[in-house]
Amino acid sequence: MINYSELLTGAWRATWKYRAMWLLGMAIIGGCNVGGATQFSYGLGNDASTYSQSTDYETVAMLDALTDLAREYWLLLVLIGVCLFLLACTALVIHYIALGGIYRGAALAKQNQPVQFTALCRAGTETFWPVLAVSLLFKIGLGIITAVVVLLLVILALTIVGLVIVLPLVIILVCLALPLRSVISSLYSFTIQGIVLQQLSIGQSWQQAWRLWKANWLDALLIYLCAVGWKVIVQVLCFIGLVLLAMPVALFGYLAYTSEAWLSLGLGTLALVGLLAVVGFLVKGINQSFSTHLWHRGYAALAQR
What we know:
Layout: H1 4-17, H2 20-32, H3 50-72, H4 74-110, H5 117-126, H6 128-157, H7 160-198, H8 202-215, H9 217-258, H10 262-303
């Protein structure tokens, strides 16, 4: 039986001792957050009212102006698009290199060996392609399964009898969300560790991860709950910190606003936003490092049985 108090305290001691892994944790989080897209939709109505016609004319004029700018500066727009694409690709490469390196660091930390950032980056580079392949396979597989389930629910919901069936199915799926995420997280972590730490092929690592989870599914669930519980505690503490910080910030903003000190208000706002961004990024990196130590120590304990 795994001693979970020792598992948690050991993961925290390793997280605090090996701070170089915080950088890898931040690299993993940063790679995940790159690639978001914003969509803009414009609606041109056919209302006969004066206000609507005026709005339509203004909208058409704005679109024509944007079209003219795009035609005039198309090369600049292409260069910006290429730069954004290269930035996203670079961030994803860093993400998967850091993912392999952070598990190597967790293994070294458990053995009380020195952990060097450059060595972890080299280790992550060596396992980049198989780690990327496993991640893509998991994402594509989950995407297909999710699409099929949603499609079946929509088809069932189109009928009266199906609608009666869909509601209980949705409730069941919601109840199964946590166990299913536990299964996926366990298999993914075990597979990645087999590749990074044991130099197994993707197929061999997956088979080993499946056997390990099948024989220890309850412990895997408890390890996942420990990771989720840690994350919830960190979020609650961060929320409390934000609430405590909000009071002096609100007082400063009120004084700056009433005295019309707009420059001070603007600089203070920028400084606060920057500070919160840095602190939030650091907290996420520490949380990623802790979760990695937790999963590796759990993996090692289960593998020794």
